[in-house]
Structures are given as C-alpha cells and as structure tokens.
Amino acid sequence: MSGEFEFIDWIRREQKTGDCVLLGSGDDLAILRWTDQPLVLIGVDQVLDGVHFDSARHDPRAIARKVMNRNLSDCAAMACLPAAAVATVALPLGTTLPYAQEFYRGLEEAARPFDCPIVGGDTASWPGKLAATVTILGRTGGLTPVRRDGARPGDGIFVTGPLGGSILGRHMTFPPRVALARELAAAFPISAMIDISDGLSRDLNHIASQSRVAAIVDAASVPIHADASVDRGDGRSPLEHALHDGEDYELLFTAARCDHPAAYRIGTIVAGDAVFLEQHGRRQPLKPLGWEHRL
Questions:
Q1: Sign of the Cα pseudo-torsion (182, 192, 244, 133, in order)
Q2: Measuring CA to CA, which residue among 139, 59, 130, 142 is closest to residue 94?
Q3: Per-residue pLDDT reduced to its tens digit, 218-268
Q4: Is residue 125's pLDDT more than 50?
Q5: Which of 16, 239, 224 is nearest to 118 (CA)?
Q6: CA 6, 58, 120, 36 torsion: positive or negative?
Q7: Bridge partners of residue 264, in order along the sequence
Q8: Residue of 216, 248, 249, 275 with fewest CB within 10 Å of its CB?
Q9: DSSP codes joined into one string, 239-253
Q10: Do domains 4-139 and 156-285 have the same CATH topology?
Q11: Contact in structure between 16 and 108 (CB atoms under 8 Å)
C-alpha cells in the first residue's frame, strides 16, 4: 500500500458530517451529538482471514460488508438502531491502496442503508493475514433494548427464517434483521432475543442459561434452509445442519405470543436448566454444538 496516511486522508475526504456527527475521522476522537437518547449501546465484532472468510475467494468489499453486517446484526438482536461505527483493519504487507479503498467502500456500503456513519478507526500493515474489527454504537430509538436474560416459562421460542448450510454463501451475504427486530419488539412482548451467529443449539443455550430456564425444541418445527440439504459428505442430516451450523444471522427470540408472519415457532420455554430436542415422541438433551472459538 502506498502509505497509511494516504489511505487515512482518502477516508477523511470520503466521510461526511451529519446531524449527529460533528467531527468524523481526522482527529484523535470523533465528536457526536447525543442529546435525545436515554441509553447508548456499544458492541464490537471482528473477522479473521481463514476463520470468517477466505481472502483468496472473497473480495475486499464482501469481507468488509460482513464485518459491518455482523455488528448491525447485533443491533438487531437487541432491537436497537445503529448510530455510528468505528473500524480498524490490519492489512497484510503489500496490500495495494485500491484494495484498501475497496474495503472501506464495503464498510460504507453495508452501513449506509441503516444511517450508520463510520466516524473513525485505525489502519495498520503487518506480516499476518487480513483482520478487521468494527465497534458500533446503538441508540434505543424509543424501544427498550431486548436482552438475553428475560425468557420465562410458558414463552414460545421463535426464529425468523430457515436455518443451516450458510457456509455455501449466506455467511457472507446475510441481511441484518434490524427493521424486523424493531417491528417485532414494538408489536409483541419479546422477552429475550439473540442473533444466530454460533448456531441455534448454542445460541438457545445462551438464552436458557442467562434466563435460568429450560427450553424444548420441536424438531419438526425447525425451518430448514435448502442449503442445509446439500450433501457435503459430513454425514450430518439437514436438521443437524439447521441446529448447529451457525452464521445464519436470523433472530432467535422468546415471547408469550407472536403471530408475525416472519416468525416460526419452534418450541417452548419451561422451568429447569437445560435445552432439549423433542423428536418422534422422544426428548433428549440438545447439546450446544455450534461454533466456538478455541483459545
């Protein structure tokens, strides 16, 4: 790359101020106007070459869209609105300026539909693989943030779309469910919510453990994506892919009632401390076999 400062100067020229952004990139900190929001929500997510994407196959715009969309999906998980973001990227030595510019355009391309300005960040070059991180600020926008710890016995368990097989491409192209999350939270008594990044089995365990309840999933009710039925030679059934693959980025939530057409009821919250799968009249523990980073 020609130089970090040339790239930063280019980013500064690309950015624009707005109603909430008094100063974006170019100083030590951005300056935001934050006067009408009772709460500020903050989250961070990263993507790593060889873990979340393959730079040999995925172009810089697609990679950047993914890291931004992961953060936007976290906003959806709490039914909040994105407000602003900062991004950092560690570029492999030898990366060209056009590649870096395309990466930034991917970030902006994902954030623009959600009125989420990119107000700063950091860049560096190093001898390792591409790594990128986005930190996002959220605003409540008139709704109480939905947490993971509010599920109660008697609540239904719902998902917002078919699951499984995302590795065939959807893990790079998913739409953050921000608008749908806010529609659901405004119309129904949503008690707990999470986005399905680590797999239905693991993310439902997060809700159950943090809410101190048990959950029963009806296997026949789990919506299975067509991609989950593609034979990848791993011996796993479409249902197993739907339960454990992850990176679907659909919403998983609990509610006393919900008849929204985009919501599939897949089970029930009950008293206890475990998650079960009910299939063919038998109930057995549903182990959290989704994605988990190894340290």
A1: positive
A2: 130
A3: 999 999 999 999 988 888 999 999 999 999 999 999 999 999 999 999 999
A4: yes
A5: 16
A6: positive
A7: 159
A8: 216
A9: HHHHHH------EEE
A10: no
A11: no
The predicted-structure confidence for 69-104, as pLDDT tens digits, reads as follows 999 999 999 999 999 999 999 999 999 999 999 999
CATH class of domain segment(s) 156-285: alpha beta
CA-based nearest residue to 135, from 198, 59, 70: 70
pTM over 0.85: yes
Domain locations in the chain?
4-139, 156-285
Task: State the CB neighbour count (10 A cutoff) for residue 26.
Answer: 13
**Tokens 């990044």, residue located:** 197
Protein fold of 4-139: 60s Ribosomal Protein L30; Chain: A; (3.30.1330)
pLDDT at 24: 59
Name the residue with tokens 């989950």: 228
Other CB atoms closer than 10 Å to residue 141's CB: what's the count? Answer: 13
Positive or negative: CA dihedral 148, 207, 288, 80: negative
